[in-house]
Write a structure and sequence with these properties.
By secondary structure, the chain is α/β, with parallel strands linked by helices. The chain is built from seven helices and seven strands. Strands 1, 2, 3, 4, 5, 6 and 7 form a seven-stranded mixed beta sheet that branches.
Length: about 200
């Protein structure tokens, strides 16, 4: 059995590595357009599953492959905030999140040739009140580009957050507790390559 991550996201790569999981990376492309009438919960889970399935479909010669796909979206007042298309879009999202509580939905799907499993994690995130100048300065760092909601809680964007209720790693991009549960179901081991000395030093 070979385990694959159907994502080039450095955040998911880092979190799986921290879990002691051995994996190969697949670069997959799926349509992340929100369907008409689709709820945020259904959207995030669908995209995660489609990424995992696309990865599996790319491995016709590996019948023992197990593939993980993930998706994370910011939800504010029922609206899905994806990745900003440009500066104006990023500033619009950041100002909408300013001084308010929003939710981050993070879905993880694991598939093999006979089954598929998906988990959804919801986390509440609270932002401090932002000025337009702060948002513009944050945009200039380059970090908002490619991030759902236009911010990265694990990076410079951490200073925007006053609190969370739920899974921190889910906000980063991969809820590790739920991921570990799914990997156990599919027989994918964690904590590999982490000897006693390395574990105790972390």
């Amino acid at each position: 059995m070979t385990f694959y991550l159907a994502s080039t996201s450095p955040r998911r790569h880092e979190l799986l590595t921290q879990m002691g999981v051995f994996f190969d990376v697949l670069n997959v492309e799926v349509d992340e357009t929100l369907l008409g009438g689709e709820s945020p919960e259904d959207y995030v889970q669908r995209v995660a599953l489609e990424k995992a399935q696309a990865g599996l479909d790319a491995l016709p010669n590996d019948p023992q492959a197990v593939v993980l796909g993930g998706d994370t979206s910011v939800i504010c007042e029922g609206e899905v905030f994806g990745k900003p298309e440009n500066k104006a879009h990023a500033l619009e999202m950041l100002m909408a999140l300013s001084g308010r509580e929003h939710q981050v939905y993070s879905a993880v799907s694991v598939v093999d040739s006979t089954r598929q499993e998906t988990r959804l994690v919801k986390t509440k995130v609270r932002f401090k009140t932002l000025t337009l100048t702060e948002c513009e300065n944050y945009w200039q760092t380059g970090e908002p580009l490619g991030k759902a909601g236009g911010y990265a809680i694990q990076g410079l964007g951490s200073v925007l957050v006053t609190g969370i209720d739920g899974s921190y790693t889910g906000v980063v991009g991969l809820p590790v507790a739920e991921t570990a549960q799914l990997l156990s179901v599919f027989g994918v081991p964690i904590w590999r390559g982490l000897g006693p000395d390395e574990v105790s030093s972390r």
